[in-house]
Write a structure and sequence with these properties.
Blueprint (H helix, E strand, L loop, with lengths): L3 E4 L10 H20 L3 H16 L7 H13 L7 H9 L13 H12 L3 E4 L7 H10 L9 E2 L12 H11 L6 E5 L14 E5 L15 E3 L1 H8 L4
Parallel strand pairs: 1-2, 1-4, 2-3, 4-5, 5-6
Helix pairs in contact: 2-3, 5-8
Length: about 240
Amino acid sequence: MYKNYLFDLDGTLLPMDMEYFTKLYFSSLCKRFVPVLNVDSDTLVKAIWKGTGAMTKNDNTRKNKDVFWETASSACGIDLTTYIEQFDDYYTKEFIAAKEATSFTPFAKKSVDFIKQNGGRVIAATNPIFPEVATRRRLEWAGVSADDFEFVTFYENSGCCKPNLKYFEFICEKCGILPEESIMVGNDVDEDMCADKLGFDTFLITDTIVNRENKDYSQYKNGSFEEFYYFLQKQF
């Protein structure tokens, strides 16, 4: 039925407590960079949030990476671009502290492998607000690899974010796929299920569902990741 399977990462392939994850992430980030940048933690955290917010408003005219660092630098009062390599180094080392807020489902790897073994195409459609190195790490925590996917979105290669429909259009153009031959699998009612507006089918993973406005999601296929795996068995 589907030729292409798009998977969200955080909360989908990688179950997590987002609030706890954010707390651990910023704690370890500040421990590394407050002394280096000589700024207080509140200033650094606010700068990161402002940079992230700017990426979510990006309209695909510039790469998310450039928008992030420009905005964060302005908010911090420091040219942070000179520290990008050090931030990447942080993701290879101290970022592991945030893994404590995540868990593991064997059905992530099982589903990806099953799709590929049966000729389907898999794409990691994670919101591209993190650099490649950080995204690769989180995929590893989920028990998969970036190499398992035909394409993975990072802030280096993308110019917009979910729920902007341009994000899904970008993937379609980049990978040469059609929405009507594809399904978006994710845990966020707003950011993932909106793909249906372009003609994607959708499957809402409910294990760690994000439903900010308590919307009725009965119109979407939904269930646990285990239930999605068994749903897959009927597709080939």
